[in-house]
Amino acid sequence: MTVFQGNKKSRPKLLPYLGAIAIIVFLWQVLSLILHKPVLPPPMTAVKEFIRIFFPVLGRHFVISGYRVVTSLLLALVTAVPIGLVMGAEEKLDRLLSPVVYLVYPIPKIVFLPIVMILLGIGDQAKIFIIVLIIFFQILVTARDAAKGIPRQLVTSVISLGASRKDIYRHVIVPACLPKILTAARVSLGTAIAVLFLTETVAGSTGLGYFIFNAWYKANFSEMFAGIIAMSLLGLICYYVLDLLERFWCRWQYY
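Structure for Binding-protein-dependent transport system inner membrane protein, as requested:
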């Protein structure tokens, strides 16, 4: 019966997120009491430290990391989605490019980080480039498979009505593939944040990865966990925005 209750799912609910946070805080508190070591401070200690240092120091690193993640995800989507959709819709092009994708995709692109930093430096450009390079193929393969999965009869029926190639992409292929593309964006977002942490700890002096690693190096564990909270908050905000976009662009899924 819940299939027909789409109006109740028109926007993501905050209550499940609050419930999840409560469970994590409870488990964190229990582990902190069991270990009873400075390396795992109680959650309230980390939260107080987060509030205390956010605007003077931590907020700047939060904004920088957020810029890097969002920019990387947007660049990967803008480049990978059109190529993936065309590959999935055009069989000849797919036969030409698929072997290249299959050969390059399994290579762990993070191994190119030293080379990228030599060529582009240790600033934003190198970090964004390596993130885009890694998540590009995740999004491309998903978009390609989504386009290939569209029933041929659907495309044929639209062509019979006089639709041009542009109309097919605009009114059939893109809407049909959009939910899976947004799912790929969510999966790639987790990868992007993980790669971001690694790139910011390897080189540079800004970003949440640098902040967390620097706090760990100084054995300031409450500050370290404040940085971890900030990185978790960054991921949560990005995921929530993607959920909102899905509910706006893919409304038919919620009715």
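The longest helix spans residues 43-89.
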